[in-house]
Amino acid sequence: MLLGSFSPIVSRVLNRVEELKPELISVTSNLIRFQTVSPPSNTLECAEYIKSYFESAGLEVSFHAREKEKVNVHVRVPGGSDRTLIWLGHLDVVPAGMREKWRHNPFGGVVEGEKIYGRGASDMKGSCAAAVIAAKVLSEINEKNRATVDFWFTCDEEVGSPDGTRWLVKEGLIQGDACVIGDSLSKSPREPYIDVGCKGYLRLRLRAFGKTAHGSMPFYGDNAIDKLLQAIEQVKRVGGYRLKLPAELEDSIRSSINYLLKNRDLTEERKNAIEGAFHYPTVSLTMISGGIKVNVIPDYAEASFDIRITPGVNPEVVAEKLRELISNFESSEIKAEVISLESGYYERWDSEFAMNLRKAVEISTGMPPKPKILLGATDAIPIKRSLGIPCLGFGAGIEELAHAPNEYVTVEGLISAAKAYAVLPLLF
Fold it and tell me: Which fold has domain 3-198+344-427?
């Protein structure tokens, strides 16, 4: 739709979000105070707070839960068009870690200047608060051509969403024509980025078997750790396998690389690794174990790898390359097992939905956003897999603060996200 026909309404939406700035700050602070740590992903009290807020605004709220305390919240803001937009975010947070590393109580929701501190402020209570305000603003706007918006606040994204998004889509509860993922981070609200996709992954386990002996007499044993180390080197070689990527993804890849290169204090080695992080699989040896005692030759050892693969490439292609690399080592003494794999996904930067969100973000921030591909995964994966609809990410959080001590979200970021979430349904 043409932006011009909505300009007066867009202006009303933007002004209304500004008027609700104190309320937005208050909602953010209040959400942070609920200790929705995963595990155990207990979101019941937080969900009750959101329900109370929405009901006071005249909106109907429903709870969906497979387990009593792991509550997913749904609120629908009806529109006049035949299209439904999904906004999806999570209420759970990771543990706060060591209290002494925090300036403030990690669950205090302390407001200091233009920042609100606390665990989950950036990931992602801030974006949830922005969505709450956007829903209220949209409920006040009578626009017959506006899309219906389903807002979903889920319970357990930080532990893989078994009782949140994955369960909701399996039950057919989440339905719509396109989805905005609020679980999205950037360097600064003054340099907006939209997540156009995320990498897939392959999890691999290596197991090595040997024979025990006294540590002083290794010639009587068969060292499983030595075998494992040799196999590990073969697995790492897959990081040199150049991926065949869709040409339409190159601009988003370049933008993603430039985004990562903005990180401070990067060594040349790390810069080179970032340059190759999309054209090659990234191979991380994340777990290793073996041995039972310092003076015993180990008869068993194992290692696990987290291998990330750029969207547009089937992980099975990389799995086959791995099998080829370790085929000379694999025997009764060395076993390789693919534990799990999942493809990533991407949206074209020039797609209709991307153009709509780009407009909404530029209207809200005053700056044209850039695309980036996430190195990790979000709840966009189960949405994309189950519904096959476009999924893009935009949020209020700051990347380097997620899961870190002294996490905060800026008021500027909150306002920008709330405006974008409220403007997008007018364009969609």
Answer: Aminopeptidase (3.40.630)
